[in-house]
């Protein structure tokens, strides 16, 4: 079982954050456009359960390569971060995958689109996101294989957060989708 240990915070300057990340040892990786369709249904209320079910299409802005993935996320596992179970696998054709889901009763909610710059340092991933109609955000994430490892991973994420000049008070536990729906 994979657990996604993640925090999210609003940022003022994309370029400043990217510079600070590189100064603290993060290596710039892919720049991608991610288009997410989340689902709801009569038999499973994802929003009420704090779960998520989505199909993501990704376009790599450097190579032009496209890919897609289907993802389930469980409810948040603590009160301070966005840590949750994550099950994700690639799919061949996002459009067909979405059609299949719609035929069996899953209804799409408004889409979430963002330009995402990935950075990596050891097992930590940093994402600098420009979310359409929302603004700029930073996410710090570690994926661990077992639940016992999530506390240590969160400590490591907090440490990085302090290194780049922020604290847990600066973070939000609200998803991009919920922020967009609240607008
Ligand atoms: P990732 O970290 O996997 O790249 P992301 O950063 O694009 O995802 P997040 O805001 O971290 O997006 O997570 C998306 C969140 O949307 C889910 O974790 C879930 O809590 C929320 N969500 C999913 N479906 C619904 C829904 N129907 N209504 C409200 N919120 C939802
Ligand atoms: Ca996230
Ligand atoms: Ca994540």
UniProtKB/TrEMBL annotation:
InterPro entries: Adenylyl_cyclase_CyaB (IPR008173), CYTH-like_dom_sf (IPR033469), CYTH_domain (IPR023577). PROSITE patterns: CYTH. It comes from the Bacteria. SMART domains: CYTH. Residues 2-182 form the CYTH domain. This is Class IV adenylate cyclase. It comes from Blautia intestinalis. The lineage of its organism: Bacteria, Bacillati, Bacillota, Clostridia, Lachnospirales.
